[in-house]
Design a protein that fits this description.
heterodimer; A: alpha/beta; Rossmann fold; B: 433 residues; alpha+beta; Beta-Lactamase; Heat Shock Protein 90; four-stranded antiparallel β-sheet; binds guanosine-5'-triphosphate; binds magnesium ion
Chain lengths: 218, 433
């Protein structure tokens, strides 16, 4: 958590989109920005890019107010996936409340996925977060492409871990909100345990998710 | 590392909230507001979300004026308010102007924030990378130091090992040489012993026979002397006796035999020394009298010692020294040979032995040319030789050094002012295993 001010009744959360270079993290955020209603959502901030590769991070902020008056800001970040930007990844990962790991489904990217995931675990430890308990969702992106890992195989590999797995084609806006809502849901569960969002602030899980993921079509 | 992290995260976290006043400055606002005032607005005021004025311009509320207030959003949250007052009549025009101003402010806000975030994360990353570099540097220098130490030690270790190997090698060579010499000597001794046995026992028998001849001659002479009836025979016998110098022969024959026996006895001793010197049969240690070991060595070397060489033996009785005498004989041999080879004419070698009950002290002092100071500590190094190539192996003193130190002793060389070199050996009589 970036910030919690009990007196001010303000809570600033951080969700991070992590994953190997070019897996579609920025695309996920772009799509969220386009698909979700303007209400309670800030502008997408894309910090400097070089050839569409994220250099620092992208940021999509959300804002909502609980019935109790508690103001909740959720800042959704992407990290740069390229190996050389590890210091930036660490900086962005600090105090994260949840991580969406965006994997590239293409067979050729399996190694990069593994390396990036190990890098995530290493960096979580580095910034003092527990990789075993932090809210985590894994998205297998680019399902629209040929030569991808079969879904059955993915599920077989990952289901024993209990980590939620989502299939997506971010470029086409498929699975993007689902991934985001899943992550936000687990993050809510974690926060609720500690800050009693439901009992003390009158904000239940479905309302929280509804506010965050109200789409433009609604 | 961990501490630094905690500290750094206290300094700055990506995502920290910023207040409106931090993001937007007077400089940003002024050029935007000016046209609005020129277009007829009475006042423009910007407050934060709690209505604290951040910026205001123009006169206060004027009569017949209307205030237009609009929220300023940042990251989906209302962070401030824009208040524009305008004459009642100008309302709709000014509302559009105010909307334009709001949008401009929003754009400026987002751009400023973006710049701030970029520079902040840049700084964090740089300083973090810098810290990491420092840490890496620190670790590198630690490990570099370790490797340097290791490398330095390694050099020393390698040098030591090389030295050891050289010594072991030279010792082996020398031992092999000695062993083969010993075997040869033992073989020769064995071959000589048998005929020598015949010679001395025959000589002894011969001595007895000579005594009998002499006794028989005496008997004839005495018996003949009483024969007054045959003076002629007596006279011719006496002449023959004289002619053959039997008086002299009689004495000399005895002497010759006993001298030959003595000679044979000496050969026997030499042969047994030869055998004793090579010690081919002993590998075990046993108590030895070093004085007699030195003597044995000198015996073996006797053919090397020229007539004008003077060997002085200052022996004191020594307690037995537990050792493999063959090894110590090698030490003596090498030291004596060293002196003999260095200085052939008029050599004087003084060998002194003494003991204080704890140690045995042996010195071999020659009157040779001495050893120059600068190489004195190198003479015990393997293959170091001052002799012409071919005349020495350069290992004699090394072997001596190794054997003596092997018995827990020390060997040193001193060259007194007056010339010559003195090798001193100290051997502890009682030593730990
Ligand atoms: N076919 C296909 N292409 C995709 C999909 N999602 C993203 N891409 C493409 O993959 C490329 C990289 O996408 P980005 O979103 O920029 O990747 P990123 O993870 O942000 O990459 P970095 O910023 O370098 O870490 C772009 O060309 C996207 O159009 C998808 O679902 N299907
Ligand atoms: Mg990106």
């Amino acid at each position: 958590m970036i910030e919690y001010d009990e007196f001010d009744k303000r809570m600033v959360l951080k969700l991070v989109y992590y994953g190997p270079a070019l897996s579609g993290k920025t695309t996920n955020l772009l799509q969220l920005h386009d698909l979700l209603a303007r209400e309670g959502r800030g502008d997408l901030m894309v910090l400097d890019t070089a050839d569409d590769r994220t250099l620092f991070f992208d940021l999509l902020p959300f804002f909502l107010v609980a019935p109790s008056g508690l103001k909740i800001k959720i800042k959704v970040y992407t990290v740069p996936g390229q190996v050389r930007h590890d210091a930036t990844r660490k900086a962005v990962l600090q105090r994260a409340d949840g991580v969406a790991f965006i994997a590239d489904s293409q067979l050729t990217q399996s190694c990069n996925n593994v390396e990036s995931f190990e890098n995530l675990e290493k960096n979580l430890a580095f910034v003092g977060l527990d990789a075993g308990t932090i809210p985590l969702v894994i998205q297998f992106n680019k399902r629209d492409l040929p030569d991808i890992l079969p879904e059955a195989e993915i599920r077989q590999t990952w289901s024993p871990t209990g980590i939620p797995i989502r299939m997506a084609s971010a470029l086409n806006g498929i699975g993007v909100i689902d991934t985001f809502a899943t992550l936000a849901g687990i993050a809510y569960d974690h926060l609720d345990l500690r800050y009693r969002l439901n009992v003390d602030h009158g904000l239940d899980r479905s309302e929280f998710l509804r506010k965050l993921t109200a789409s433009t079509e609604d | 590392m961990q501490d630094k992290d905690v500290k750094r995260s206290a300094d700055y976290v990506v995502g920290q909230e910023k207040r409106l006043a931090e993001i937007i400055t007077q400089m940003d606002i002024l050029p935007l507001v000016k046209p609005v005032l020129q277009a007829g607005a009475d006042s423009v005021r910007i407050t934060d979300e709690r209505e604290n004025t951040i910026w205001s311009s123009g006169a206060g509320a004027v009569e017949d004026s209307i205030e237009i207030s609009m929220p300023l959003y940042l990251e989906g949250e209302v962070v401030g308010l824009l208040h524009v007052t305008a004459p009642f009549t100008q309302e709709s025009r000014l509302r559009r102007l105010a909307e334009l101003l709001l949008e401009s402010l929003r754009i400026i806000l987002v751009n400023n924030l973006k710049m701030m975030l970029t520079s902040e994360v840049h700084t964090t990353v740089i300083s973090q990378s810098y810290d990491e570099l420092l840490e890496i540097n620190r670790r590198l220098s630690v490990s570099e130091r370790r490797y340097r130490d290791l490398a330095e030690n390694l050099e020393i270790k390698v040098a030591e090992r090389t030295e050891e190997l050289k010594r072991a090698h030279s010792r082996l060579l020398q031992q092999e040489k000695m062993a083969s010499i010993g075997q040869l000597a033992a073989g020769v001794a064995h071959e000589i012993n048998n005929p020598l046995g015949f010679i001395s026992s025959n000589l002894q028998t011969m001595g007895k026979y000579v005594a009998r001849f002499i006794a028989m001659l005496e008997f004839y002479r005495t018996a003949l002397a009483d024969r007054v009836d045959n003076v002629e025979l007596v006279e011719s016998a006496r002449r023959k006796w004289q002619e053959l110098k039997i008086d002299m022969v009689r004495i000399d024959a005895v002497d010759l035999v006993s001298q030959s026996l003595e000679g044979a006895e000496r050969v026997k001793k030499i042969v047994s020394n030869l055998k004793g010197f090579s010690h081919v049969e002993d590998v075990e240690q046993f108590p030895a009298d070093l004085n007699s070991e030195i003597d044995k060595t000198l015996t073996v070397l006797s053919h090397e010692i020229s007539d004008d060489t003077e060997i002085i033996r200052n022996y004191e009785p020594l307690p037995d020294f537990l050792c493999n005498p063959a090894l110590l004989c090698q030490v003596f041999l090498n030291l004596i040979l060293n002196a003999l080879q260095l200085h052939k004419k008029g050599l004087r070698l003084e060998i002194t032995t003494l003991s204080d009950g704890k140690n045995i002290l042996l010195t071999f002092a020659d009157n040779g040319p001495g050893i120059p100071e600068n190489i004195r500590n190198r003479v015990f190094e393997p293959f170091y030789t001052t002799k012409d190539v071919g005349s020495g192996t350069g290992m004699g003193l090394t072997v001596a050094y190794d054997i003596v130190t092997g018995y827990g002793g020390t060997i040193d060389v001193n060259c007194p002012e007056g010339g010559g070199s003195t090798f001193s050996i100290v051997l502890p009589i009682i030593r730990g295993k």
